[in-house]
Structure formats: structure tokens, C-alpha cells
Amino acid sequence: MASPPSDEASWDEVEERESESRDGSDLGRDEVELGDGDLTLNFGPSFQPVNCWRKLSSCEEFVGAKRSKHTIVAWNEKMYVFGGDNGRRMLNDFLVSHIRDCSWARVVFTGQPPAPRYHHSAVVFRNSMFVFGGYTGDIYSNSNLRNKNDLFEYKFTTSQWINWEDKITGALPPARSAHGAAVFRNKLWIFAGYDGHMRLNDMWAIDLVSDQPKWEQIPQSGDSPPTCCNFPVAVVDDSMYVFSGQSGAKITNNLYQFKFGQRQWMRIRTEHLLRGSPCPPQRRYGHAMVAYGRCLYVFGGAADGILDNEVHCFDVNSRMWSVIQPAEGSETPCGRVFHSAAVWGNCLYVFGGTIDSVSSRSGDLFCFSFSQFPKCTLVEDFARLLRTEQFCDVHFLLSSPTVIIKAHAAVVASRSPYLRHKIIEIYRQQQTSTPPRDHPQFTQNTHPLEVPLPEVSAEAFNMALFSMYTDCIHPHLENNSGDGMTAQQMLLMMEVYKLALLFQTKRLELLSMQYIEASINLENVLLVLCSASELKLARMREFCMRFIVRDSNYRKVIMSSSFEKLDRSVMVQIIRRQQFRSRPTSPDLHSELEDRVPSSLQDDLEAFLLSDIGRPFTDVVLQVDQHSVPAHIPILAARCSYFEAFFRSFMPESRRVDITFGKTPPTLQAFNSLLKFVYYGDVHMPSEDCLYIFSAPNFFGFRNLQLHCHSKARLEKDIHKENVLPMLEAADNINMEVMKKHCLQLIAGVFPSIVKMPYFRNLKRELLLDIADILASQME
């Protein structure tokens, strides 16, 4: 028997893509500042819930006009606003808002500021703000209107404006407005915009630290955005992102990524977004986009005539969009267009913009607090479990000569009904007796279980197995050039699709089908058609047929050299189908499967834990007080370094493990809440359970502090008179003084209501004395 060749490069690629966020230099505050032991409960007046909008002080008219098409930048706990228009004239006033006291003022400066303008750009580099381009002139009299290509620097430390006209050597970029601007590695980068006659998509850069700065036109390759204007840009790591914008008839809601190092564009593909999954925001213009951590946040803009006020989030790692629901009590701003936004600390600041109508502008400043929760590492943990092959308890035997692929029965069984039944069948054939219900059901102390799959390709099975563990398509099947998959990738993906049908993994079935359909073109459609016929993939064959007989495709296909080499019977089928395409006899391609969202990795693991599906695969029993909780070693080890080390070094023969949270034995309910997080990333739990988990933030060795950050947030906002007594009791049990003190203060404030509760009369004597002490101190 031989093992398949190792593929460390592909695994490293996955690990790098999924785990870049662990490098503090490339992260936002969500994971940099939440280090070990830095989780302190905050019950003071400064506490602000995450994802919460607050309306700060408005800019009064005597300080600065309400405006749109302006810029805002953040520096040293201040927001600086420059330019824009108030509906009657262009502006070049310079305003500052102090974040700490929410005050507004005009900036006092020296030097000549830029002329009044709007649709310019402004960025911060070190201790300076750089303003480029924009539209100037007198809009009231409609005179002297023109685009600019000048560059100004404002030095925050000396309050001085400097015109770079005399510093720059060489040619200048074409004058423009409504463009995008960003700073990366000491350079200011300018992209696209409007020059007064047409939209642009050129790119220029200038070195901001050079003694002889000059503009350089940047050659671009790849799948670049169309000519566009009125769009935002944001930088994450070594890439700049562009979302939507005005591009005439070509306006889309595509998101593009520009890699500075390779100077290459790539359209972020959406084949991985299944029907029912969160979709990208509507196409729009005049919106704002900022980067925070490893996410892009889009707010506002005109979306097909509607002024949007939702916060849309794009996760750069998972490439998934979501809509952020504002926290309860948020002062959410109304929809707007041509506003401006900046980030300081862990907050997004939005100022101005056009609201309600063309003539109505805003002078309000809003603040949105970002979530500082570290991301869920479930997918990364399972990908690493598969790559390292630790705790493998099942070997799949494939093809001829035999190839062994190692896996974990619990994970595979949770995802594939076909493989689950096959593993159970083979396992029961080898067992002489059935263990008691409260004992581990699936134990392979000597040799892993061998499951033969003789007709399955090893390469395709590896790809399918990767998707079972991660809900992602293997990197070898993705083509990041923007041109879709290669012919070899297409054929391999079709084999994966066939395996998905066999294994009854509905999510992989839809995912692989979407990737294939998105990559079918005039050059490869006949290849896919023949392969689909050979593999008996009816849906894929039908899709190819419909693609071929389209009026725009049919002539090109039949005139191709590939068509001449087709089997005669396939030729006849295509020609006949084209003649009778107005009366299709095949069913609709969108099956009932797509009417509902197929279960995800989290969904399947939730069912595996909470139902009887996972019971036949339990291989360890966790003892919580007097209760026995069956569990699965590979899942526990993948998620917690504590369990990983314990199972490798200290596994008792009885396969029973006593559980504590640090030095504290948890309640059964608290431990079940912990298991839900371990198995499927659930962070929603009762406040009492959060208290036990929060008391031991580093004990279990999770990859990050996601669970403990959520516990912290829950404890800070969800303590009220209905649950304060159980929380007081739990805090006393685990000796958490800060929580106990907070509960006592809350009880003292609502004591007339508390004293009537039955729970109060069952408190132990020591806690009743503590309550009496806090009441007495307040009376004094």
C-alpha cells in the first residue's frame, strides 16, 4: 500500500490565506489589542456596545456649512473636513472635530490652501494630509469650471499648507475628479475618475518621501475595473479594493482587488456564494468604503435610485459579504450619497452627504463602533486537522494500486450520509458486542477503520474531502486570473461534482456546479459537454446544451475546430436541439435543492452534536460533576490545544476525562455551551455560562479569544434585575470580584424589586450579608 504524494504547497496556501490574520502587523485592533489577559470587564459610563451608531455633535452653520462631495480624514483623535459644496458654491474651508469632546472649530493655518473644490481626494501619510485634484470653479454662475491635477500637503504639526507644484518634476496625471486615492509604502496612488469628457481607469503614483518626487503612470494587468468615477478605495495588506461606482452602462456591484506588488487586478469572484447566502450590496455610486481589521465596510451611496443606510461588510479572508445589524438603541443615520468617512480607533466616522433630495445636505457627524470580536477559526482548525493527519481513525482505500487517504470518522460522518452509513456498516461488522450507551461507541485502539472506495479517484476524493472539512473549494480548483478554471481544472471539478452526488453532500454539489457553470465559455463548452455525457451528469449536460444553442453562441461553436472532432451522435443532438430550442423538453435547471440553502459545516456539526447522528461515533466521555457527556476526540483536539495535548499524552484507558474550567468545576449547562462553541462556533449563550467561560480565558487554548470576547460583551450589557441574583451567585462561586461588585451595586439600585423575588430568599447567608453591606454603605 502506498500513501498519496504529499501536497504541502497547497495546504500552505490554504493555511496562509486563512491565517494571515494571526500576524499582528497586518491586523486591525480586533486581534492585536486583545492579547492574553487583556480582557477587562467595563461597567463604566464609557462602555459602548459594538455595532452601535451614535450621533455626535453637528457642525453649526457659523463654523461650517452643511455639505457633500467633501473629504474627511482622521489624525490624532481629530476629524478634519475639507472642501465640498453646500448646494450654492464650492468650498475650501477647513474644519476640525475633536473626538473626545465632540466640538467643532475652523482650522487656523498658514500658507495658501487649495482653491474651492469638490470630488477631490484626501489621504493621511505620517503627519500630513495630501489633497489631490477635484472639480473647481463657480457653480452658481457656471463659470471657470474645470478639473484639477494639483497636489497639496497640509502638515498637522505646523498647521501649514504647501503646494507641491514646484516640487514635482516630470509629467502630471490628467486632471480629474471623483477618483480614488490611497497610500501604500510611501506612495500616493491615484486611480480612475472623470476628466470632464470621459471616465478614466488609469493609475498613477508619486513617492511622498523622495527628494525629487515625480508622477509615474502604473502599468496594470489582469481583470481591471471598467472606466469609473464616484467610487471609494480601501487598502488591506498589500492590496487595494474598489467597489462599484459610476461606469455608465457597465455599472455593476463587482469588487476588484489590485495587488500592488504584481500591479495586477483581479475581480473577486462570487461562485462560492450559494443561493440564499448573503449577496454583495447593490451596485451604487457616491458611497463610502473603509478598511478595519481584515474587513471592508461599505456605507451609503445611491443604489439604483435608493439612498442606502445599511453597513455592508466584506471579509477579505472568507470572501463573504454580510449586512451588519445595528445594536439596539442605535441612532442610525438616514441614507445618503456623496458623504465621507474615516476610521479612528475602533470606530467609523461619517460626516455630511446629500440626504432625502438633491438640495438637502447634512452637517451631522455619526460614529459607528466596529465589532472587535476575533473571527471564528472553525474552518482553519478543521483544515489544519486534515492537513496534519492527527487523530485519524479511518482510512479510505482508493483506486488501483491502493492509495490510502486518512481522515476522521466524526467529521466525514457529519457531512456525508453516504459515508456515514458506510463507516457504520463496516465498523459493526468488526464488533463482537455493543458498548453501553454512556460509554464511547467508536473506539479504534489499534488500527484505524479501513473503508474501501475502489471506483473513486484519489485526486478528486482529496478535493471533496477538503470541502467537507472547510466548506471551501480546494485552491487547486480555483483560478485567480479572472478567466475561470482551466480545462484540466474543469475536468477535475466535474469528478468532484460526481462525488458530491454520490456522497450526498448537497453543499459541495451546488458549489462545484456553480464554479463549473461560471467557467464555461466558447472554448471549453464542448469539452465539458462530452465529459458530462461520459460521467452521466444530466444537469451539467443540459446546461452545456442550452449554452451552445444560444443565438450569440451557436454559430461560433459549430464553426470551431472542436466541433469537427465531436462524435457524430453528439453533433446530431446539438443540431436538433438548436432547431427545437423554443420547445425545451428538459426540466428547469434550478432543482428543488437550490430552493433552500444547503447545510453548512456549522449546521452539520450542530446536528452531529445535538442529535443522535453523532452518537455512534463518540470515542471519549467527558465527566462534568456527576454527568457523562459523550464527545468526539478529533473535533475537540482540532479546536482546543488543551484537549489536543491531553489526548496525545494522558488519555486514560477508560476514555473518561474529568472537566474543570481552570480550577473551577463548571455547571453542566455552562459546559454544554462550551461544547456548542467547540463543535460549531456558537457564541450565543446565557450570561451565567459566559461567567464561567470568561473566568478561564486561556485554559482551553483556543486559537484566539473569540469566545471570551463575546462572553465579555454579553456580561457587560446583559446583566439586569431578572438575572442579577443568579449572576451574583455564580460570580461568588468562581471568586470573580469585579462581577460580584457590579451585581451588588445593581441589586442596591433596584432592591425593592429584588427583595420580592423567590430567588432572593434562597441566597446563602454570606451573600445576604454582602447585600446588606452595600445597602448600608449607600445609606451612609
From TrEMBL:
The keyword Acetylation does not apply. It comes from the Eukaryota. Residues 9-18 have a biased composition (Acidic residues). Residues 1-31 are annotated as: Disordered. Keywords: Kelch repeat, Repeat. Residues 19-31 have a biased composition (Basic and acidic residues). The keyword Translocase does not apply. SMART domains: BTB. InterPro entries: BTB/POZ_dom, Kelch-typ_b-propeller, LZTR1/Attractin, SKP1/BTB/POZ_sf. GO terms for cellular component: Golgi apparatus. Residues 392-477, 618-687 form the BTB domain. It holds the Pfam family Kelch_KLHDC2_KLHL20_DRC7. PROSITE patterns: BTB. This is Leucine-zipper-like transcriptional regulator 1.
